Amino acid sequence: MFSAISEINLYICSELFYKILYNKKCDNMTTFKGMIFPHHRRENGTIPAKIRITHNRTTKYIPTSIVFYPDQYTRTFNMKNCSPKFQLDELVRTYTERLSKIRDLKEADIDVVIKIVTTEHSSDSIDFIRFWESELENFENKGSRRNYNTALNNLKEYCQVLTTDEIDYNFLIKYAKYIIQNNGERACSLYLGSFRHIFFMARDRFNDEDVGQIRIPRNPFKKFTVPKQNKSENRALRIESVIEIQNLPDNGLRWNLARDMFMFSFYTMGMNSVDMYRCMKPKNERIIYERSKTKNRRDDNALMVIQVQPEMLQILERYKDKDRLFNFHRRYAGSEEFNTAINKGLKQIEKHLRDEFDKKIDKKEIPEDSEFDFENLQFYSARHTWATYAQNKCGVDKYTVHECLNHITPETKITDIYIEKDWSRINGANRIVLDQYKKAK
Questions:
Q1: pLDDT digits over 183-203, tens only?
Q2: How far apart are CA 47 and CA 33, in angstroms?
Q3: Are 38 and 48 in contact (CB under 8 A)?
Q4: CB-facing half-sphere around the CA of 301: CA atoms within 13 A
Q5: Are 116 and 123 in contact (CB under 8 A)?
Q6: What residues contact residue 143 under an 8 Å CB cut-off, 6+ apart?
Q7: How far is Cα 260 from Cα 246, in angstroms, rounded to an integer?
């Protein structure tokens, strides 16, 4: 007797809670209702219960393991106040509570909502998307925050809800395929790179090996490798970006050095910093050097002869030396120190250009989804940009571009032994590029 009364009181209290919860309108426009149907009655008179879900004017039925016996429903198939009815109402409340913890799902498909409410997650499971959203506030750099937010928005397009328990190798494979199909290979590398970083942040935050608390035991990135960007594509800048670097005003020793050497590399078809450091003074207005990177692997010692062009003169004058191409051997202990100074200057330039880019975004002078062209700005970008610009915009054929870069292609390696290099043709190609660059300015 006591048990029956307690069960009824529990039902009354839960019904009040249920009404309060439902009187607070659901942002997701989703409702649940327990139901039984006459046509579902079995031969023994039992009827399995279902929960009707209505979401955005679409209705489906969720099966349950709850069964009503003949004495637990009326002749008109209304449910009596009984244990199965209480269980069904409790399940409706559970579904409602689970949904109330999720972000806005107005645009979600009803099947996604069903998955959310019917999937039981352990208490250790973490809402990965919500964690990512919270971490965005900790990114001080606006550019980085924008990049990670773009990656997050792409993930939300793929799935509205994601817990750390669901992130495994198969999920990453499917998600990578989705990104490539919709956004391309470069986006796949960028988005999954951001995804991996946030995932490891979550592992660091929620796993404590010292006390044995491991809330995210799985690491799918041991097996899954984030696709790498095409390095050449990544390092080549738009020609407008090269112009932007050239037009930078003086702003300190390293800044000026990085700007000038970047432009000199562009003017000389991608001359490396180590060669700038070691190269001797021009002879007959020709810069002659052996490319350090490959000279020990080449029969011709990777000889390079570059005609001095008018664009180079100002830089040559600024850093002139009586013996060498530049005076850097007097200012830096070695080529590595010289290269380090250039890279530090490029970081200063990148930060400045990032700040200017963010200001344009804030002022709505450019679209919010504009791509920052100077991310991880490298000295080698000058070389890659010259080659890309020469072939794609200036009509220089691929073989000549290889010669200008002092490369040897496998197809012509043997033939090149018997053919003397035509430096006038190589420098003529450089002149074509510089003339086209001058027009672009």
A1: 888 889 999 999 999 999 999
A2: 16
A3: no
A4: 5
A5: no
A6: 354, 357, 358, 372, 375
A7: 8
Dump pLDDT digits (tens) for 245-269.
Answer: 999 999 999 999 999 999 999 999 9
325 and 287 in contact (C-beta within 8 Å)?
yes
| This prediction's pTM | 0.53
Pick the CATH number of 235-440 from 1.10.10, 1.10.443, 2.40.50, 2.60.40: 1.10.443
Cα–Cα distances in Å, from 80 out to 12, 13, 50, 97, 239?
14, 17, 15, 24, 77
